[in-house]
Amino acid sequence: MDISQIYEDLQTLVPKAVIQCHETLKGYVYTQMGGNADIRVVPSTYDEVQSIIKYAVDHNVMITTLGNGSNVVIRDGGIRGIVLQMTNLQEITVSEHTLVAQSGASIIHASQIALQHQLNGLEFACGIPGTVGGALYMNAGAYGGEVADVLLDALVVDSTGQLLTLRKEDMKWGYRQSIFTGGQYTILQARFGLESGEHSSIKEKMDELTFLRESKQPLEYPSCGSVFKRPPNRFAGQLIQESGLQGVRIGGAEVSTKHAGFIVNVDNATASDYIALVAHVRETVREKFGIDLETEVKFIGEE
């Protein structure tokens, strides 16, 4: 289908949404690299999300959902069809022990709101740079906690545009994966079940985790966080460090000298730079240790 026609149709269908044609995505994702979207749409209501998904189904248009792109690399060829970016859906509310967050809200902000209401449970998320939707998608976790521990349910849109509520028990949790990695659902909001606590002790825990993160991670450069999943009984960063790969660079992408598990964008890296460096790291670790590192980062779009 002609891109200009899709653009015109969406302007009529969801006139209040942000709609852009042939828009570069590097300015809208955490890693600051990647190609163009045929159509980028940023909805502000659940109805708009449903309408866009139903349109894509009816017209056989590919649709890709993004948050802030903190754990994805968009290839330099960009993304065909519609990119549905959820970052305008940011509302967070609290009722007693339940925190409800829209999918485009920052998971860090959600942890801060929990602190304000003296609620335990989201401290682990105080340094995770993704959105709530991305955190559910990946079952994000840090320092012994993960989303699956505190989620109650999620309001989603299925692949036909219908609203559904998925319970925590339905979500097929795994290490950095969930039912959402299958691509059948678009997350609208999440409900978290938390517990009452003392403001001072919650803040102390969050301050401790923030210090650990800032002291160990290369936050001064754009990155996807930990590139590789933890292999059985080992740590990816340690294997990379022992392979002598810290500081190795391809183009503008570099294996961090501060934390070997990170690949950072130090000088206008392209996605091709990043992907080539990932491949080099995997090959080197495989040759030295016989361990095949599996990426935690997701690669999307065209070469």
Automatic annotation (TrEMBL):
Enzyme class: oxidoreductase
This protein's name: UDP-N-acetylenolpyruvoylglucosamine reductase
Active site: 176, 226 (proton donor), 296
Residues in FAD-binding PCMH-type domain copies: 33-232
Necessary cofactors: FAD
UniProt cross-references to NCBIfam families, sorted A to Z: murB, PRK13905.1
Keywords linked to the UniProt accession: Cell cycle, Cell division, Cell shape, Cell wall biogenesis/degradation, Cytoplasm, FAD, Flavoprotein, NADP, Oxidoreductase, Peptidoglycan synthesis
SUPFAM superfamilies: FAD-binding/transporter-associated domain-like, Uridine diphospho-N-Acetylenolpyruvylglucosamine reductase, MurB, C-terminal domain
Any Pfam family: MurB_C
Pathway assigned in UniProt: Cell wall biogenesis; peptidoglycan biosynthesis
Gene Ontology process terms (BP): cell division; cell wall organization; peptidoglycan biosynthetic process; regulation of cell shape
Highest taxon listed in the record's lineage: Bacteria
InterPro entries xrefs: FAD-bd_PCMH (IPR016166), FAD-bd_PCMH-like_sf (IPR036318), FAD-bd_PCMH_sub1 (IPR016167), FAD-bd_PCMH_sub2 (IPR016169), MurB (IPR003170), MurB_C (IPR011601), MurB_C_sf (IPR036635), Oxid_FAD_bind_N (IPR006094)
Family: Belongs to the MurB family.
